[in-house]
Amino acid sequence: MASGATSRSEDEESLAGLKRGPAAASGAVPKRRSSSRFIKRKKFDDELVESSLAKPSRAKGGAEPGRCSGSEPSSSEKKKVSKAVPAPVAPSPVPAPGLAKRLKKSKQPVPVTKDLGRWKPADDLLLINAVLQTNDLSAVHLGVKFSCRFTLREVQERWYALLYDPVISKLACQAMRQLHPEAIAAIQSKVLFSKAEELLLSRVGSVRGNGSWRGGCSGGPPCYVTPLAPLQGSQPSLDTFQDLLHKHPDVFYPSRTAKALQLHWQLMKQYYLLEDQTVQPLPKGDQVLNFSDAEDMVDDSKLKDVRDEVLEHELTVADRRQKREIRQLEQELHKWQVLVDSITGMSSPDFDSQTLAVLRGRMVRYLMRSREITLGRATKDNQIDVDLALEGPAWKISRKQGVIKLKNNGDFFIANEGRRPIYVDGRPVLSGSKWKLNNNSVVEIASLRFVFLINQDLIALIKAEAAKLAQQ
User: Fold this and answer.
1) Are 57 and 64 a contacting pair, CB within 8 Å?
2) Phi and psi dihedrals of 223, rounded to 5?
3) In this prediction, what percent of the chain has a pLDDT beyond 70?
4) 224 DSSP β-pair partners
5) In the chain, what is the greatest distance between 2 CA atoms, to the nearest angstrom?
6) From CA 191, how far away is CA 68, in angstroms rounded?
7) Are strands 386-387 and 372-376 parallel, antiparallel or unpaired?
8) How far apart are CA 267 and CA 276, in angstroms?
9) How far apart are CA 467 and CA 409, in angstroms?
C-alpha cells in the first residue's frame, strides 16, 4: 500500500511538472485541476494558522508559499484562492493635458471661511474701527463691548495678528466681507468717540441755546460761539448737532448721526464734562459727612408718620403674650430657686417667719406657707401647690395626689386623694384615708421620697394663740 501511494504521488508530480512547464514558458497563469468530488481531510496546525492569518498569494511558477508542491489543495482553499485573485482591470485612458488641468481646477475646494475661534467677524470689525478712532488698545478694552469678555492681552494679540499674520488677516477680511449691511451699520454705531469728537461736543453750551460754529479761535481749533442771551430750554436741539456734523465731516466718524451726537452730549453733560459746567470742589478743612452723621441730623419729628393698624395690633398682641409669660415665670420663680440652690450648694435656711413646714426631697425643697397645700403633678389644665415632677419621674403620680393640712391644735395630716397609696414612715395610706405627719417623717409617693420638717417655733406660737382664744 505504501509503495502504491508513493508511486501515485510521483506520477502526479511528473504530470504537474509537464503541465507547469509550458505554462511557465508562456507566462500565463497555470490552471488547476478541479474535481467535483469533495475531499475532506484534517488540516495540520501550521496549515490552520496560515489559512486564518496569511492571505493566499501566488508565487512565481504557480506555487503557493507554505505548501508542499506535492499536496493538492482542498475545495475550501480553492474558493479562497478564487476570491483572493482580483479580476483584471482594464487600463484607464490617459486624459489630455488640457482636460487634466480643468479637472484639477474643479477639484480644488471652494474657499470657505473657517471658524475664527472666539473672535467673530463682528468683533474684528468693531476692534478695527475702535482702534482707528482712539489709537489706544487700553481704551478699546475698557470701552468696547465684544461678544466675549476678552482680556487686554487677548485684545492686543488679536490686533497684532490682524496686522502681521497674513493667514488670520486674510480669513478675517473674508469673514467681514460676508457680513450683512445692517450688521455692519449696527457695529459702526457702537464705535467709540475720539478725543477730537468729544472736544467739539464739550463746547456745545448746556445753558445757552443754539449758536453758530466758526473756524479756529485765535489760531486754535474750531470753537462753538453761543449767543449772549439765554434762549428757551437748556438742551440744544438736533439742528445744532446736525450743523456741527455738517461743518466738521473730517472730525466725526462717517456713520455718526445727529441723534448719536445728542445722546453722547447728554452723557457728557451728566458727568460734568462740558466746558461751561463747573464741579463744586469739596470743602477743605471741614469733615465730609458720612451716612451715620447725616442720619443723626435728620429730624424724626418732621418725617411723615404713617400709622399701620395691622402692625400696631400685632405689636399689642405680642406685648400681651410677653407680659403673660413674665407673670407665669414670676409665679414659678420659687420652684426654680430650689433647683438653683441644690446645684450651687448655697441653700437658704429651712425655715423663716412664714414657713410652717418643709417637704424636702433629693432635688427640691417645697415650702408650706399656708394651712393647706395640695400635692400632685401639674399640667396645663391643672395647677397645684406642690408639683412633684420637679423632683423626678412623676408619670405614676395623680394630678391631685394628696393634701397636707394643719389643724388648729398644731397637728399636720396628709390625706391621699390619688389612685396609688402614699407611704408615711413605711405605712401605706390608701386612697380616701389620712395620716398624721410628725417632724422628720418620711413620705414616699410613687418611688419619690421626701422628709417632712416642721417649724417647731412657729407651731408653738400658733398653739399658744389657740389656747388663749380657747380660754376667752
Assistant:
1) yes
2) -125, 165
3) 62
4) 213
5) 172
6) 86
7) parallel
8) 15
9) 9
Query: Nearest CA to 83 among 95, 71, 93, 75?
Result: 75
* Contact present, 382 and 394 (Cβ < 8 Å): no
pLDDT value, residue 314: 93
Q: Is the pTM of this model over 0.70?
A: no
Cell of 104: 484639477
Cell 439765554 sits on residue: 230
Residue 128 has pLDDT above 80, yes or no: yes
Distances in whole angstroms, Cα of residue 202 to Cα of each of 101, 195, 415, 439: 65, 10, 103, 105
Answer yes or no: are the C-beta atoms of 413 and 434 closer than 8 Å: yes
DSSP codes of every residue in 232-295? S-SS--HHHHHHHHHH-TTTS-TT--HHHHHHHHHHHHHTT-STT--PPPPPSSSPPP-HHHHH
Q: Which three cell numbers stand for residue 228?
A: 449772549
Number of other residues whose CB lies within 10 A of the CB of residue 268: 18
Distance of alpha carbon 418 from alpha carbon 466, whole angstroms: 32
Q: Which of 80, 162, 79, 70 is nearest to 123 (CA)?
A: 162
- Winning range, highest mean pLDDT, from 51-55, 256-260, 351-355: 256-260
Q: Where are the alpha helices (DSSP H) in 97-151?
A: 97-107, 121-134, 137-143
> Is residue 314 packed enough to be buried (19+ CB in 10 Å), middle (13-18) or exposed (0-12)?
exposed
Q: How many CB atoms lie within 10 A of CB 297?
A: 8
DSSP conformation class of 207: S
- C-alpha dist (Å) from residue 347 to 337, 361, 365, 407: 9, 13, 10, 29
